[in-house]
Design brief:
It is a single chain. By secondary structure, the chain is mainly alpha-helical. Strands 1-4 form a two-stranded parallel ribbon. The radius of gyration is 20 Å and the shape is globular. The chain contains 17 helices and six strands. The chain starts with 15 loop residues before the first helix and ends in a 5-residue tail after the last strand.
Length: 373
């Protein structure tokens, strides 16, 4: 297993005077996925043939978009506070919109079509039932998360020290889990701002037009159903457990792990191997995804099977519901439980291109290094 991570050219964590009460796991080591990816390719070169778009994705997206529009239309005359409206929004709507969140995640990696522009436009289509235009902004923030995993000031998946300090209690963590969709929506803009592009503008225009059409032809309650579905999808919902499960450190670590000079590898990505993967594009196979972002959701189980010896000993989750429960109630788990790096990272649009050996896909041109035959 790849327990020994190579030391990166980090400038190291800030000193204690700048950290204050900072309790994150600061690391001098490079993120583990590149090292493991290289080892897996060396041991199993055939895994590179798994890279490339999954044609099934676009059909699934169309079905889920149609489902949500149908539900919104059928609930247009129901009171918002009725049990029919709320139950449908939680059981069907939140699950469907979480599915669309993760479809956009797949599409952001150019895994629906081979043409990059087709992926950008299709992500805008998948965005429609979510009600808030976000697909264009999500992509560069998410790709930066891959390129600069754990890098303070670049990886916007990381909670800030402000969040961790003020939400360091059972009530605080419960608040975070209830409103985490808002944290994930607003935090990136607080960390750094993206330049606006034509795709961002198109995303906004198309979403406003769609929302207006929904209100005109089905009524404001139909739009309220879609917005509520998106909120619940990122709240206390079983599928929302993946947000926390993926990168928070749940296993108890030795006290010395807080000392970055000790070079103790702290597990910073956790996979989940439960049944909810069937509804969420296998996002639970998160170590596998970070190791090979160019492999689509449908082939991640194959990657796991081929390279099983690399994943068997890694910590993982069996239940997203229990992830949420433990996160809220366990005093040893909270927003401080993230690995951070202080080295200079790289952000998408920052003037650098991804190297093919890093991700298996040239995001600048959308070329797959080993196209599936």
């Amino acid at each position: 297993m790849q327990d020994n991570q190579s030391i990166s050219s980090a400038r190291g964590p800030k000193d204690e005077s700048t950290h204050g009460n900072d309790q994150f796991f600061w690391s001098y080591t490079e993120e583990p996925h590149r090292t493991r990816r290289q080892a897996i390719i060396k041991a199993h070169p055939e895994v590179t043939k798994l890279c490339g778009p999954e044609p099934l994705t676009k059909y699934l997206v169309v079905i889920v978009v149609a489902l949500q529009i149908s539900c919104a239309y059928l609930l247009a005359q129901s009171p918002i506070m009725s049990w029919q409206f709320c139950l449908t929004a939680y059981v069907v709507g939140a699950t469907a919109n979480q599915n669309l969140f993760l479809a956009i995640h797949e599409i952001s990696h150019n895994l629906a079509f081979r043409n990059p522009l087709a992926n950008r436009l299709f992500a805008i289509f998948a965005n429609l039932p979510i009600g808030i235009p976000y697909s264009a902004s999500f992509r560069p923030y998410h790709l930066t998360h891959h390129k600069s995993l754990g890098v303070d000031g670049l990886d916007t998946d990381l909670p800030t020290a402000f969040e961790a300090f003020f939400l360091d209690s059972v009530l605080g963590k419960a608040f975070f889990c209830t409103f985490q969709i808002l944290f994930y929506a607003l935090r990136p803009m607080m960390v750094y701002q993206l330049p606006l592009t034509k795709i961002h503008l198109l995303n906004v225009i198309v979403q406003i037009a769609f929302n207006s059409a929904i209100v005109k032809f089905a009524g404001s309650k139909a739009l309220a159903y879609l917005i509520l579905s998106s909120f619940l999808a990122g709240s206390l919902h079983p599928c929302a457990g993946h947000f926390i499960a993926e990168h928070y450190v749940f296993d108890k670590q030795p006290a010395s792990a807080k000392d970055p000079t000790a070079l103790i590898p702290v597990p910073e990505t956790y996979s989940y191997y439960g049944p909810l993967n069937a509804l969420t594009y296998n996002v639970g196979l998160h170590n596998e995804h970070h190791d090979f972002p160019a492999i689509p959701w449908s082939r991640l189980p194959t990657l796991h099977k081929i390279a099983k010896e690399f994943y068997l000993e890694l910590p993982h989750h069996n239940s997203w519901v229990m992830v949420i429960w433990q996160f809220i109630w366990d005093e040893e788990v909270g927003l401080w439980c993230r690995v951070k790096r202080a080295q200079v990272g790289r952000n998408v649009g920052g003037g650098t291109r991804w190297k093919e050996e890093e991700l298996g896909v040239d995001e600048g041109g959308g070329t797959i290094i080993h196209q599936r035959r």
